[in-house]
Amino acid sequence: MQSYPNHWEADVVLTDGGTAHLRPITPDDADLLREFHSRLSPETIYYRFFAPYPKLSDRDVTRFTSVDYEDRVALVATISDSLVAVVRYDKVAPEEAEVAFVVEDGHQGRGLASVLLEHIGAAARERGVRRFIADVLPENRRMINVFREAGYTAQQTFDEGVIRLTLDLQPTDDSTEVMRAREQRAESRSIARLLFPRSVAVIGASRTAHTIGQTALRNLLTGEFQGPVYPVHPEAKAVVGVRAYPSVLDIPDEVDLAVVAVRAEAVAEVVDQCAEKGVHGLVVVSSGFGEIGPEGRARQDELVRTARAAGMRVVGPNCLGIANSDPAVSLNATLSPDLPPHGPIGFFSQSGALGRAILQRVAERGMGLSTFVSAGNRADVSGNDLVQYWQEDPATEVVLQYLESLGNPRKFVRLARRLAKQKPVVAVRSGGSAQTTPTGHAAGGLALPDYAVTSLFQQAGVVRVDDITQMFDAAQVFAYQPLPDGPRVGVIGNSDSLELLVKDAAVRQGLKPHEPVNLGPQATAEDFDRALEAMLAAEDVHSVVVVFVPALQPIGDDVARVLRARAKDSGKPIVTTYLARQGLPEVLRQVGANGETLRGSVPSYPAPEDAVRALAHATRYAQWRNRKPGRHPELPDIDRARARSTISRALAKSQGSGQDIAWFGGERRYDEETAVSSEDARDLLASYGIAAYPDLPVSSADEAVVAAGELGYPVVVKADAPDLRVRAGGTFVRADLRTPEDVRSAYLSLHDRFGAEAELVVQRMAAPGVPTVVRAGDNQSFGSVVSFGLADVTAELLDDRAFRLAPLTDMDAADLIHAVRAAPLLFGLPAGATSLAEQPNVEALEELLIRVSRLVEAFPEIGYVDLDPVLVNATGAHVLGARMWLREAPEVRPDAGPRRLRGVTF
């Protein structure tokens, strides 16, 4: 019976793009282990056992396969039901264990040892192991390099002909970076195997016109795929004039990619045959899977399990397909007959239904694609995989993504941030008002309001747009024009009305337009040329918008030629609204007659507002890319051991009753019974250098007077209950109480108003300032998230909040404060102030945000922290109210731990 954590099982991508399944060993693996050992070469056996060991005894097999998953743990890697690698550790001291590997000869060099080390290390840390010891023969250079290149802190000694390596298993920046780099290379390679096949089989190729199978076959053939195409049909000798085969197993040559177009019920048999054939990847265009409900979802999970176990990746099911316009490949494995020409744009679409319309729209825009993937139900290959591939793909300069959900939002943000530092990433995420995942897709409900998702995308440098039209508008600038160096926009045109529209639109988009240069309705191409030359030469002009409408007699494409000529020589972007004729002038198209990308092409838009909006996207992206990356400052007064002790104590008190709190936006649901005590909350905050003002609960006017004397005057008396500010305005607190009579009167007044509805507390008064709210917690999709806003009724009702992912850099913290609409209140003088010395200390607020972000990132047990209010005045940021909810730590946090593919049910 299984007695190990579920998350110890995982599918992983290897360095050559194939896949393997990792899981703990069990006694049922006895025969697999014997067969595995029998396939090992004498050299590999000698490296593992330091002696000839041609056969495992029954005692050996029992010892190796029977582990307790505590002091003795072993993981195996399997491919197509064959065991291909084993790693194990055995504790030799309370925090120390001996680790050993063996990888089958035919699978060495595929990265199995490295990924097994990551997973066994994570399992060991869960069991209290802090160090690994590995004894390795000096001539076993490959295994020595696995340990040395893992990124862990390591020590090496040599004794009696054996090298002993000691690894500190505490993750470091180096070990994390090594893991991420290997993940990127492996996942990129797995996508490259799909997009660069040497041969393709169409399984389900039909002799009936306009069927899915025949459409897929015809598109491969008419798209001039550069390798052989094999139709698979159980009876036909040929399909559309190409020799057919009864099954993929009957094809005499190797098959790299299989397009599967059979009934859903028959897909499982086809996948088994592809696995036996050694196919590298599957594109499943068939429907009838997760999109139809639980039965289809079970069928979908089985498809992915079988494929990954055999080393295959899956695009789909229920997808449009994949395409690669590289002339050396010319792959059109989609259901769309017409693909845009070769170009610099990579496109990922979850929607198969919209995929064909999207491709048509790209072609109409005169743009070109490098690669296209429609993932459908996205059971395996996702947008994150494509982001990994496009980072290294020299043919892709701009990335477009149409997203309906995010399978691993945390990973998406991390990968997109890294890619966006090199290439623009433009995303449409539909269903922004919904909090659930579309049917058929993997779990990815965001559980955050739509504007919060947008702010997290912005933090990662992702250009999020509202619809497909805006996506292509932005892509035209990114793909064919340089990025602007700043927000100053020059405007040239021959129409006062259009020029004013441009100016107004630029102001609304946050750009800084110059006064338009109006050339008059009779302006010639030469007039436009001179004006453009002067404007592009001006240092205070970062980009140019040109608007043109014809005079009574159209002047042909002369103005368009001027725009193109100037754009070729300019380092500044030019966009235009060109209304001289019906349709786009050929000289403004982005793709030439032979399919080549035309650099310097000037994007033309049907309306000035469209042109300005696209330019604004490019400007904001350029500012994000050019900004300083920010740093994680060293913070004093952080005591992780104290924090851990406080959490353990608080969880023991609550008996594990803590639960996830819905804390996004204004929809906050509190369960006061599961909140930790005020004392524990203050203690946990203090362990990270955050001082929260104590408050004393009182149940009578006399108790209130005594409490005030203990705290010291002046004090406040307030009603302490969630959401009271919204329901009671400012009437739930009595401030600046300086005498016992003041305290007694305040208590009686609040008690008469609220009765038993709210507990009354007494608290020392802070100097006047700007009240704010800081909330943080572990979001089910994105991981640790911090939100910020002002603590007043208007901000609450308008939900004026901003969000960022933890941990925050100093730049993130500053951006988070500036992102709320009410932020100007923090950067002026408060009411009654007479000097700059009384200005709110925003730097202290930034440090508080950083500290809170470090706390929730370090401890996943913290489900939710609510600091309300945080009063920001000249002396600092003062936490006057603090609530906290704990929970049992999740087994696996989003995008945390060793590398793994998005899971299916094992």
UniProtKB/TrEMBL annotation:
Which regions form coiled coils? Answer: none
Tree of life domain = Bacteria
**Residue intervals of the N-acetyltransferase domain:** 20-170
- SUPFAM superfamilies for this protein: Acyl-CoA N-acyltransferases (Nat), Glutathione synthetase ATP-binding domain-like, NAD(P)-binding Rossmann-fold domains, Succinyl-CoA synthetase domains
Query: Any transmembrane segments, and where?
Result: none
ATP-grasp domain location: 682-719
Any idea which UniProt keywords this protein has? Answer: ATP-binding, Nucleotide-binding, Transferase
Q: Which GO terms describe its molecular function?
A: acyltransferase activity, transferring groups other than amino-acyl groups; ATP binding; metal ion binding
Q: Which PANTHER family match?
A: COA BINDING DOMAIN CONTAINING PROTEIN (PTHR42793), PEPTIDYL-LYSINE N-ACETYLTRANSFERASE PATZ (PTHR42793:SF1)
Q: Please state what the protein is called.
A: Acyl-CoA synthetase (NDP forming)/GNAT superfamily N-acetyltransferase
Q: Which organism is it from?
A: Nocardiopsis aegyptia
Taxonomic lineage from the root: Bacteria, Bacillati, Actinomycetota, Actinomycetes, Streptosporangiales
